[in-house]
Design goal:
With 238 residues, the chain is of the alpha/beta class. The chain contains nine helices and eight strands. The strands form two sheets. The chain has a six-stranded parallel sheet, with helices on both faces.
């Protein structure tokens, strides 16, 4: 009997790893702040890279002097999710260079599973992926729940992977791919390999300082990407 083919799990971050909304999501945050916090905000300079949606909500409550409660965080996130689909077309966002080519290529490689590991809520992630045409590439994912930090999402992600592949994932064949030190940290927290992509506001040099398994300035061509991660060859066309 032949040995079973190895299984690989790729956990992808969304914002500034797969796509850029050109900060259209900030408009939805402002909408939520008006509705839930009674604020008249201007978040033009708000820095959210690497934060979960829950962390952003809690940060904004502190900024506006509003008491943080789980119920209020949940209400803020539901308001944000409701406004996001209508706000995304207001900016010229895009799928980042190399993403679609790699995701298309991975579909043809046996035993490779693309999942999400993101600080977005599930509804927020769905809105972004649908708007930019990436919603068909991912089997499932681990998302931000109302009071999560990123390590909690990462721990949940291992269960999501086990459900997707039918067994506990091999940590040496499991990768977290993201654009910030937070992505590297959460991958390390669950003992998997981390791939930093300097496609956002964090440079490759800054990512290197956090000790990832691999760093790229930008996503490479699909064959180089697959070779670096040790992925199996694409299945031969019949």
């Amino acid at each position: 009997m032949s040995e079973a083919e190895p299984t690989f799990v790729l956990f992808w971050d969304i914002d500034l790893t797969l796509l850029s909304t050109a900060r259209a999501g900030v408009f939805a945050l402002e909408d939520a702040a008006r509705e839930v916090l009674g604020a008249e905000p201007d978040y033009g300079e708000l820095r959210t890279a690497g934060l979960t949606d829950s962390q952003i909500a809690r940060m904004l409550m502190e900024r506006h002097g509003v008491e943080e409660t789980p119920e209020r965080v949940g209400a803020f996130l539901r308001a944000y999710e409701a406004q996001l689909p209508a706000r995304l077309p207001e900016r010229q966002g895009r799928v980042l260079d190399g993403v679609q080519e790699i995701l298309d290529d991975l579909r043809g490689r046996p035993g490779v599973h693309s999942l999400l590991l993101t600080g977005n809520t599930e509804a927020g992630a769905a809105a972004k992926l649908a708007h930019y045409g990436l919603d068909g590439y991912f089997e499932n994912g681990a998302f931000c729940m109302d009071m999560d930090d990123r390590d909690a999402i990462a721990r949940r992600a291992l269960g999501v992977a086990e459900a997707a592949i039918g067994e506990a994932p091999d940590l040496d064949r499991t990768f977290v791919i993201g654009d910030t030190a937070h992505d590297i940290a959460c991958g390390k927290a669950i003992g998997v390999r981390t791939v930093g992509i300097a496609s956002g506001v964090v440079t490759a040099g800054e990512l290197e300082r956090h000790g990832p398994w691999l760093v790229w300035e930008r996503l490479p061509e699909p064959e180089e990407f697959a070779r670096a991660l040790g992925l199996p060859r694409a299945a031969a066309a019949s």
